[in-house]
Every structure is written in C-alpha cells, then in structure tokens.
Design brief:
6-stranded parallel sheet, 48% helix, 15% strand
C-alpha cells in the first residue's frame, strides 16, 4: 500500500469560492463538471465525517453566494463558512487559517474557483507553512486553459500534489468493500460515473 495516504481520519476538505458568479469564470473545466465534482467532494466529506470548511469572497458582489447544492449537502459547514472581505490568498485570512488549524490536521485537500487566482496562492502558502496539500484540479478551473496550466505548474513546482476528483475519492476509499468505501463509490457513481456508464 502507498505510504502517506490521505484519509478521512487525517485530512480536511477545503472548498474555496465555489460561488454562483465565480463558477462562471471557469472555462478550462466545463461548468457542469465543476458542479458535479464539487458536489462529490462535499458529499464525500460529509459521508466520511471528514472536516469540511467552506470559504467565500465578497458574496455581495459579482461572486455571489455559494452554490445552492452545497447548502443542501452540508448545511452546517455552509452556516459556518468563512466569509472573506476580499482577501485573495485565503490562507492569509486569519479566520480561515484558524478554522483549518482547529481541525488539528496537516493534510489539506483544496479545490475552488479559480485555480489561477483563488487556489494557487493558499495552496502554496500552506505548503510554505509546512502543510501537505492536494489540489483537486477538476473541481475548479480558470478563465483560460493557459491560465490554468500556469497555475498548475506553479503549484506543482512548489510541492503541491495535483489530483482529480475520481483519483482523490479512490484514495480516500482504498477499499470499496468497507462501509466508507462503499459510500464513496456510491457518490462517485451518482455524481460522475453514471452519465458515462448509462450513455
């Protein structure tokens, strides 16, 4: 078995700026794909009782509120979301960082919008503070493919691990026959695989 796996017992899920306006800026990953993958991540965190933290930026402006699906999936995390006044690097906003530190976990799973602005900076900042970070690339996106590629390269050079929604969910499960693994597999099928299998 791989060493240093991320599990629901040692990681925290950080979903950053999945807002109704911000999601429209994602061109590198299609809108529907971002929504499905984000739902899958949030549902996985809830199903496995992994700490889940939402943060938003300037909800009263074009970015708007969090996606409605996230309120339905995780009402408690939604109510406790960290509302940033405009801080680009969420890691430097004290209430967000304090919420992460309060979990006591050093492995951070990050996804958000956009990869080239709202994810690249907190991911690298957390790495520089000694945390381990996986960024779920396809639960976010950027206004152009070039912008996305530049952000991913920059993060990877800084030591961030890049992953996909399916890959991360498989890592968290590791065994589909366990109760947690079965729950994750069901979420993966409903949110991601069903449309492919039944096409």
């Amino acid at each position: 078995m791989m060493k240093n796996l991320y599990t629901s017992d040692n990681a925290v899920m950080l979903l950053i700026d999945h807002q109704v306006g911000t999601i429209k800026l994602s061109i590198s990953t299609p809108y529907d794909e971002v929504v499905r993958n984000t739902r899958a991540l949030a549902r996985t965190a809830v199903a496995t009782k992994m700490p889940l933290i939402f943060t938003t930026s300037q909800e009263e402006r074009f970015q708007g509120p969090l996606l409605d699906d996230l309120l339905r999936i995780a009402p408690e995390a939604h109510a406790a979301r960290v509302k940033r006044p405009g801080t680009v690097d969420a890691w430097t906003y004290a209430p967000f960082k304090e919420a992460v530190l309060a979990t006591g976990r050093r492995k951070l799973i990050m996804a958000g919008l956009t990869n080239d602005v709202c994810i690249v900076y907190p991911a690298i900042s957390a790495i520089e503070d000694g945390f381990e970070v996986q960024v779920v690339v396809d639960a976010g996106g950027s206004p152009t493919r070039l912008a996305d590629d530049m952000a991913l390269r920059r993060m990877e050079r800084a030591g961030v691990m890049l992953t996909s929604t399916n890959q991360l969910m498989a890592e968290l499960a590791m065994d589909w026959s366990t109760p947690a693994g079965s729950a994750i597999q069901g979420i993966m099928y409903e949110e991601i695989l069903k449309r492919l299998v039944e096409a």
